[in-house]
Amino acid sequence: MEISISELRTIISSSxxxxxxxxxxxxxxxxxxxxxxxxxxxxxxxxxQPVMLRKWVDERLLTPQKSGSSQNSAVWYxxxxxxxxxxxxxxxxxxxxxxxxxxx
Length: 104
Hints:
The chain has helices spanning about 5-25, 35-45, 50-60, 80-104, and strands spanning about 35, 65, 75-80. It is mainly alpha-helical. The longest helix has 25 residues, at about 80-104. A 3-stranded antiparallel beta sheet has the order 1-3-2. It has one domain (about 5-104).
């Protein structure tokens, strides 16, 4: 498997970021929660469309938590869960590129 330095740096950075966030979650679980609007801003900042949040929830890749039973209750997401998913998606993208390259 041959990947570029840029791709390798991206995947290592995503992995470390997810690991650090997971550590934070174990030490301070309340600091792992982010509101839906913040989750959308975060995923946009790392290169995904905000609409992907809904798609990931629909595909059961992310699990939102509601703070109450009313319809207007805040929806929260685990930042470590989001970062792990992003790492997985980036790694999957690199592996797909590699498979396509080998087929040629």
